[in-house]
Specification:
The chain is of the alpha+beta class. The chain contains four helices and five strands.
Length: about 120
Amino acid sequence: MDEDDHPAIAAAHVFRDDETSDTGEFAIAVLDQYHGLGIARILMTAMFLDCYCEGLRQLQIDILRDNKKASGLIRSVGAKPRLLEGPVGSYNLVIEEAISALQKMENPTAIKDVMAAFATG
């Protein structure tokens, strides 16, 4: 939807090395002016549910260590640090635990809508 009247405001992706791996690499970005609206949590909910449906069970996440908000966000869904040296912090995330943490969040309310869509889909 990257059109003049619908510019892209966020992006998320997961890559895995091969189809048999249960581990992927996760990245997400939201434009600065849209921070704090829950967009990252909504995208994470959709991505993590989709990953789980596709057989992924763990994600690796690299974040610039100066980005305290991003580190706090992924820690809020259960990510555990694996390496916090240098300019980049590396985290491991168990997808099932992250989904559970997201289910418990009351905001944004759209998380529950995303969960419901996957439950009926």
